Amino acid sequence: MVSYNAPRKKDIEPIWQEVTLTFPEAYESVNLYRPIESTSPLQSYSNVKTLKVLVPDFPVVVELRP
Q1: How far apart are the C-alpha atoms of 65 and 55, rounded to whole Å?
Q2: Beta bridge partners of 11
Q3: Which element (helix H / strand E) includes 54?
Q4: pLDDT per residue as tens, the chain (66 positions)
Q5: How many degrees, rounded to 5, is the angle at CA 16 between CA 36 and CA 5?
Q6: Closest C-alpha among 17, 20, 21 to residue 57
Q7: CA dihedral 28, 61, 18, 8 (to 10 degrees)
Q8: What is the model's pLDDT at position 1?
Q9: What is the SS3 assignment for 1?
């Protein structure tokens, strides 16, 4: 995916950032979505207390189920 720099009138390639999510308790089910790409989960995890997520320049949704 490419972003656009309007003042410079050129495409830019954003740098994705890794983020670590740490929860107070483990979640039985965690789903990771990129709604701009698909309505289905990109990845699914179970029994999660810590999760590393690559964050682009578009929305990422983390669904937590205890």
Answers
A1: 21
A2: 4
A3: strand 43-55
A4: 567 888 998 888 888 999 999 999 999 999 999 999 999 999 999 999 999 999 988 899 999 998
A5: 75
A6: 17
A7: 180
A8: 59
A9: coil
